[in-house]
Amino acid sequence: MNDTLSDQEQAQPILNVKGLSKRYGKGCSHCETPEMLMIDNNRCPHCGSVWACIDVDLELYKGEIIGIVGESGSGKSSFVKSLYFDDEITSGSATISEYKNGETNIFNESAQQKRYIRNYLLGMVYQNPLLGLKMSFSSGGNIAEKLIASGSLHVGNIRSRAGELLQHVEIPLSRMDELPKNFSGGMQQRVQISKALANNPPLLLLDEVTTGLDLSVQARVLDLIRKIQRELNVAMIVVSHDLGVIRMLADRTVVMRYGRVVERGLTDQILEDPQHPYTQQLVHSLL
Ligand SMILES: Nc1ncnc2c1ncn2[C@@H]1O[C@H](COP(=O)(O)OP(=O)(O)OP(=O)(O)O)[C@@H](O)[C@H]1O
Ligand SMILES: [Mg+2]
Ligand SMILES: [Zn+2]
User: Fold this and answer.
1) Predicted local distance difference test score (pLDDT) of residue 157
2) Which domains, ranges and CATH numbers included, belong to the chain?
3) Which numbered atom of ligand 1 lies nearest the CA of 208?
4) For atom 22 of ligand 1, which residue has the closest CA?
5) How far is the CA of 77 from the centre of ligand 2 (A)?
6) For ligand 1, atom 29, which residue shows the shortest CA distance?
7) Which ranges of the chain would DSSP assign to H, the alpha helix?
8) What are 83-128's pLDDT values in tens digits?
């Protein structure tokens, strides 16, 4: 953590999530609360609803990277999508220190306020570039869209800022007017990252950003994320089913299983001395 921060800034997390729960499906008398389901199965056998996140707490401090790791279906994407307002939550609260002094539950805000939060305070990189990029817009155009949404109106500025952002992720200016659908997977992720950074958000959400990329490309994207964190001091939530990625990036780690947090702590500690049998299994599979 940066020593130049005041005590107050250090004390207040930039993001504070409390008791976030998300159920997909209408629910029935057998799954009104997640406790009514088996602990190792968050899907209701009667109506098929899924408690994707169950009572998840998370505090993220300025400039910090938190990793969320867990097997497929553990609720990692549901958690970040909820924070980005892609999916409506079932219950819980979240505050952002730079929004209304961190005193307002962002989930209770109006659609317009949520749009503001998304446009000004958050960046999101989706696992699937199709969700994060408009493939029929040039890569520069994708970034411009986000710049305009966050209040940049001057066309000349937008173009030069988009160019700057692309260069930051090592995409040559000469490719600014090309469609991202012609780019490789690693380049598409880099365009997504530069788009997510366009509004200088204090908070970045990265969902499986390197999954599916070749190892060498993966390494470059991970290096890029570390560079961004060093240079811009952005706080990040990095979601991955790959503990290797988490080890590279995250200061602290949260382990999810069946929608619940089963373990949390410093990444080094979790890797060296995992407590939960599931984390032990994950760590051993990495060795
Ligand atoms: N839109 C949806 N409608 C219904 N169920 C959903 C929806 N999105 C996710 N789920 C369910 O919620 C649970 C958690 O899914 P989620 O995508 O959050 O897991 P994940 O940890 O990101 O998995 P992966 O590693 O495969 O990306 C799963 O059981 C999934 O089937
Ligand atoms: Mg996912
Ligand atoms: Zn049910």
Assistant:
1) 87
2) 11-286 (3.40.50.300)
3) 27
4) 77
5) 4
6) 73
7) 7-11, 76-83, 111-121, 129-132, 139-149, 155-168, 185-197, 215-232, 243-249, 267-272, 277-286
8) 999 999 999 999 999 999 999 999 999 999 999 999 999 999 998 8
